[in-house]
């Protein structure tokens, strides 16, 4: 969008937010509206304001209840749930019964997913379609994932096979995986306070989960 056109759009939107009224194209009468505005962006609006590419008054008008959604690379537990969800979905869609090998799980969890959920979804469908074996092996991973070397590889035990059985329900998959994951972290990072910091959860939550899974 050209700068002038962008400014005109910003000014028009600001007027709508201020007065909660609109006009039809070519019309002269104002029409009251009762709407709730939900806006989303992956851009840093404060930096755009400093660069004079976004109106400061519009930012303050829409910035009523900001919600920060962390990227997938900061939510490995969500990555696993999404992987299992899409695996089940595409197994059903293509009439397959595929599951991930433990090493593939490690690589998929450690990958930063710059394309967010859309990229993850497409990768899972590709793997389900291309795999000839029951287990999806790392040789089928796209080069960007296969060649990715994370600074902190995700610790996954070989016992993860029990957590990726496609016959289990999604809830059971998540519980089994979380149990295996926590056991791996608890044996790797000590004391528990340090383990909780690595997992980015509070100590009370870790203690509760440890008790839940009898670890």
Question: What is shown here, in short?
Answer:
By secondary structure, the chain is mainly alpha-helical. The chain is 53% helix and 4% strand. The chain contains 10 helices and 4 strands, in the order αββαααβααβαααα.
Order of helices and strands: HEEHHHEHHEHHHH
Head-to-tail CA distance between termini: 56 Å
Number of domains: 2
Question: Helical content, roughly?
Answer: 40-55%
CATH class of the largest domain: Mainly Alpha
Oligomeric state of shown chains: single chain
Number of strands: 4
Sheet/helix structural class: mainly alpha
| Strand order across the largest sheet | 1-2
Beta percentage is under 5%
CATH topology of the largest domain: Helicase, Ruva Protein, domain 3
